Amino acid sequence: MELEINKLTKQYKDKTAVNELSVTLMPGIYGLLGANGAGKTTLMRMICGILNPTSGNILLDGKDINSMGEDYRDLLGYLPQNFGYYPVFTA
């Protein structure tokens, strides 16, 4: 399995959160480090398909993730630091 990120960019009005990032990831364990506001969360949201990039693309085994739909989402596991939940639910 290969995740290829090609010239991925995300801009918000006058701020560039991610600027032409290109990387190929093979199976393994990776860390994503950076200062506050460096674009880590923006990048993760784009990789998960939650946020659309301004330009560039993300390919999984050569297929654009935006065209894979549920087949791509079935492969993901993403738990952000601050996630929403329903506090009235009990388990």
How much helicity do the residues have? 10-25%
Q: What is the fold-level CATH name, i.e. the topology?
A: Rossmann fold
Q: Which segments are poorly predicted (pLDDT under 50) over 5 or more consecutive residues?
A: none
**Total count of strands:** 4
Task: Please describe the biggest sheet, giving its number of strands, its sense, and whether it closes into a barrel.
Answer: 4 strands, antiparallel
Q: How much strand content do the residues show? A: 25-35%
Average of per-residue pLDDT values: 90
Overall CATH architecture: 3-Layer(aba) Sandwich
Note the total helix count: 3
What would you say this structure looks like, in words?
This protein has 91 residues and is of the alpha+beta class. The protein has three helices and four strands. It has a four-stranded antiparallel β-sheet with strand order 2-1-3-4. Strand 1 and strand 2 form a beta hairpin. The longest helix has 8 residues, at 40-47. The N and C termini lie far apart (35 Å).
In short:
The chain has 91 residues and is of the alpha+beta class. The radius of gyration is 15 Å and the shape is globular.
Main attributes?
Rossmann fold, 4 strands, 3 helices, alpha+beta, globular, 4-stranded antiparallel beta sheet, 91 residues, 18% helix
What topology does this entry show?
Blueprint: E1 3-12, E2 15-25, H1 40-47, E3 55-60, E4 63-64, H2 65-68, H3 70-73
Antiparallel strand pairs: 1-2, 1-3, 3-4
